[in-house]
Design brief:
Number of helices: 8
Distance between the termini: 43 Å
Largest sheet: 2 strands, antiparallel
Order of helices and strands: EEHHHHHHHH
Strand order of the largest sheet: 1-2
Helix content: 40-55%
Radius of gyration: 24 Å
Mean pLDDT: 75
Amino acid sequence: MICQECHQRPATLQFTKIINGKKTEVMICEKCAQEKGEMFMDAGGPGFSINNLLAGLLNMESNIQTKANAFPKTEETRCPHCHRSYKEFVHIGKFGCAECYKTFNEQLNPILKRVHSGNTAHIGKIPKRIGGTIHLRKQILDLKEVLKNHINEEEFEKAAEVRDKVRSLEKRYEAQEGGEEL
């Protein structure tokens, strides 16, 4: 969608304003949001930025509003690989390396749960048109997890049903793939 202000750049922000019970939605680009800051400001603060949004999600101090630091010890914590601190991550909006995810996992999990409706693991998506047997393999792996859970809970009748489903899917997979091992 194109920005409703400049009609040139792609709209990256959506604002919903409710004034006297009347709801208005505006789709604008970040540049117009900064230029028209008075429309999109929090009470008395400077204009909007992606870093401020991220900082707000992370419950850290931001330019929009000052909040108590939810994770007081994170300022001292630094990634052992790239030496970026959590505070730098909040300011910049990017981690320095893959090791940062492990280093700051304790701080990220509650945020990811809140932002992604409780999900903290990325499982990805598979396009249907090129997925081929990938969907089948994923279904088998998911059922094997369910099978392990049933066995751990000593629900052997349910485990037997799931085992039979896994075997059936494995036969179907072998017929399609030519016997590749899972």
